[in-house]
Write the structure tokens for this entry.
Amino acid sequence: MSRWIATRLLTGTLACSALTACGASDAAEDPRTAADAATAVRLDAPIGDTVRPASVTTGTEAPAEPSPTVDGPTTALPANEYGRIPIVEYHLVVDEDGSYAVSRDRFRAELDTLYQLGYRPIGLGELLDKRIDLPAGTSPVLFVFDDASPSQFRYVNNNGSLTVDPTSALGIWLDFAKDKPGWRSRGAFCLLSGAEAGRSFFGNKGIEGQETAWRFSKLKQLDSLGFELCNHTLWHARLDKYDDAFVQEQIARGELAIDSAMPGYRVRGFALPLGMWPKNRPLAWSGAWTDAKSGRTLRYAYDAVFEVAGGPARSPHDPQFDPRSLPRIPLGKGMPLLPTLQRLEQAGAKGRYVSDGDPAQVAGTPP
């Protein structure tokens, strides 16, 4: 039955209306302009409040870690672990589709489409370390959420007890996973820590009801659920416009903020704001910045750099796999997910990655 559902989804005869109307413009504005940042961001500004709320719960409890042999929809395609892997890119999850925004209904529908087609979430570390261990007939998908907006992760304060807002992306995810075997909490949240409009670790200063004191708890909760933290710079500066020193400060201060919430946390991924590379390209994955006030030097080094677009990524088993240039599938108005999945399904040996269920061997023919 699950294969019949997958076939109908791909032919379009069972596709949800939220998918057929989905889609985003080719560009998004920076959350903060360079002029704003020059006056609003100070080197000595505190990164965040370490006060934690008295009680934090998920609201909708995360599913138990599944076995690699759990039941659930699969694909009839042959095993091919040299195939392509979709890295889906979400920003705002709100009432209606817009520029780099998807509606809540559409977000849930796209989760369901992926699940019914046999896709299962993986972590960035699993991709980089070639540790993709999925049941036979299923395929990996890597979710990446950019900008750390409250729409992705909001708390609701119920008399001092904080729960995950069920209308936020994380709340929708956790509710969806409750009856979906094999749907783990895996993916990467690429964070801003000093941008406007609440793009500071999922909300601050009362924006959308989110308190500054809750920010660090949100990062810790994502980590405890199984998600990974990724850097997206301090305030989303277009790195192609600035000199090397500024580029390194933007990246290093973003990492410093994550370390303030999660001391010693290893950040493995970096997402380029608007997909723009710095003039000195290697600074996107390695560099250093010295705080003139404290004299402290912070060095950063990333295994992965996310582009803003480019289609499905190569398998880590593919000799041409380049983790320092990982393409993604941006989703928003005018940018639907289903056509990409259809193309992968129809591409034969050059199509989707399909697991053979045996992590000790790599199935398929190298490209």
